[in-house]
């Protein structure tokens, strides 16, 4: 009997293979008081487990293929940094000594405290970082329980060609399994922005997440088909269905291999319209991947990494060095977004210690926090301005919702310029300033903003969430996350029209920009600057280069008024089949 399960497709591709079910047994954490004479022995247990965990991760990092994207090792490095952080080393040891609790319980108490902080974060990407804490803590717990090596960490080839079925996977798990040749993976938990799913996209592993209780329905070693684009898993498929997917798998591999020829080509539609393809960057290590993808620059450089996992904000010189490295390495335009931190997702030096925030997504975050912490904001603005002396730089303010916020932010920027002028410090006096359009208020008022900035950038991830009032990493409501919702499309179109009217460039840096299904629709709406994950660039370039704008359906923009999602999907199919 055929069984089909549905989840969230987070990494495109098709996998055909047998299931390998992974059970990560949760550690049995017991609480007990230790005698005084055992305190130092317990401290040594925890310290030794920490050190063994580091050695395991270093060994995993050594097995990363040399041709793997640079962000692969950065995920492992994130876990290594956590193992060196005082929050997971010093604090639990202090608990052992002051409260005489066993090592497992001290570690669990600190884990719970850290998770509570991450649960209150408003940014979906940063909130999923709690997964990393769990992964690291569970590794230490296994070592405390003398469970040294997990089955999938033994490189004996047993996983080759299999589809992994698990409750969740760590980035380290994913690297090891990819090295052993897995065909794909399915997890019960996880979101589109978790480290593991980003890693799957980087490594080209077809993947689906959010399939609740999948291990109850799939048998170990059962033949499976995984469709990473549709988010479906098929068990017990007929010979006809299996043969069809074999053909699709072959065609997908041929298509992927053929994309390399577009790297050296200009990005231009068949009828001659030039389109700009930029990349989103999160870490300095992303630059190599961005360059290899042939991006024309960086349309969104996130700076939050500089502020995380530390007790005080980065100083001006540290930020300048980080920005300069990226600018000089790229030798192409770089748009730097000021820190998009907020509520409880920042360093201690920038956190408000007031009452607990009930709804941090609607609280003190992004530009609001920048203006609330002027010294921290000023330090970053000075660093960005100084970095602009070493290459083409643009500056972008996140989550601007009112004219007053923009006026205040530009005033702070001008104040920093005046300081640098007095100090005789070089910077680009014509540095362009823009805002992110990522909440409905800013889209509705896009014309007002367009009169005061050099460019607009549509952040579709937050725009969709705020417009539809849903959290896309919440398994109970993420089915409502719909880029084709007429409200979302109207806000995007409104922003594009505002840019055209006032001669201001409008880019898009959310996931919609890198979704091949939406490329021609966005072109029809007037978008000419896309910024996306570097792995998506070549495929989007192929679609653009094979598109004749004059042949797009004349009724394409009727999708803005369609309240029936099936009709919208049908029109989208016609748009994509029109060339």
Could you outline the blueprint of secondary structure elements for this entry?
Blueprint: E1 3-6, E2 8-11, E3 14-22, H1 39-62, H2 70-84, H3 90-99, H4 103-119, H5 124-127, H6 130-144, E4 163-166, H7 171-179, E5 184-187, H8 195-203, E6 207-209, H9 214-217, E7 223-227, E8 232-235, H10 239-258, E9 276-281, H11 286-293, E10 298-301, H12 316-330, E11 334-337, H13 367-372, H14 374-387, E12 393-397, H15 403-423, E13 432-437, H16 440-444, H17 446-450, E14 455-458, H18 460-468, H19 486-502, E15 505-508, H20 519-525, E16 529-532, H21 537-545, H22 565-576
Parallel strand pairs: 3-4, 4-5, 5-6, 9-10, 9-16, 10-11, 11-12, 12-13, 13-14, 14-15, 15-16
Antiparallel strand pairs: 1-8, 2-6, 3-7, 7-8
Helix pairs in contact: 1-2, 1-6, 2-6, 3-4, 4-6, 7-8, 12-14, 14-15
Question: Can you describe what's shown?
Answer:
Helix content is 44%, strand content 13%. It is built from 22 helices and 16 strands. Helix 7 packs parallel to helix 8, helix 12 (316-330) runs parallel beside helix 14 (374-387) and helix 14 (374-387) packs across helix 15 (403-423). The longest helix has 24 residues, at 39-62. Helix 20 links the parallel strand 15 (505-508) and strand 16 (529-532). Strands 1-8-7-3-4-5-6-2 form an eight-stranded mixed sheet. The chain has an eight-stranded parallel barrel with strand order 9-10-11-12-13-14-15-16, surrounded by five helices. It is α/β, with parallel strands linked by helices and 579 residues long. It folds into three domains: 3-23 and 151-238, 3-Layer(bba) Sandwich (Glucose Oxidase, domain 1); 36-144, PtsI, HPr-binding domain (Enzyme I, Chain A, domain 2, Orthogonal Bundle); 270-548, TIM Barrel (Alpha-Beta Barrel).
